[in-house]
Amino acid sequence: MLYLPNSFLNGGWGFSTITLIIMALMTYYCSLLALEVRAKLGAKSYTECGEMTYGAYGKAAVNFSLALS
Predict the structure, then answer these.
(1) 30-69: per-residue pLDDT in tens?
(2) Which of 11, 12, 23, 66 is 20 to 30 A away from residue 48, measured at CA?
(3) Which of 57, 40, 60, 38 lies closest to 49 in space, CA to CA?
(4) How many CB atoms sit inside 10 A of residue 6's CB?
């Protein structure tokens, strides 16, 4: 967030605005997909989704990505 104003200045107002809107829409769509998968699997958490689909590797991958985010 601290670099957002500088990024807008460097990228240009038009391009930066369009890119920010596209990224927001992609995030929204991916969140909906993740919620749909969780509902279809009957899982209580995203870690459980990873474990149900890919086993221990999936559980570790989900936990790692959540920690990075």
Answers:
(1) 999 999 999 999 999 989 999 999 999 999 999 999 999 8
(2) 23
(3) 38
(4) 9
Q: Longest Cα pair distance anywhere in the chain, in angstroms?
A: 45
Lookup result for tokens 């749909």: 36
Burial 44-63 (b: 16+ CB within 10 A, else e): eebbbbbbeeeeeebbeebe
Residue 55 CB contacts under 8 Å (≥ 6 apart), including other chains: none
Give the range of the structural domain holding residue 18, as residue numbers without chain letter: 4-68
**DSSP tag of 3:** T
Number of domains in the chain: 1
Query: What is the distance between the alpha carbons of residues 59 and 48, in angstroms, rounded to a whole number?
Result: 7
Q: Is the pTM of this model over 0.85?
A: no
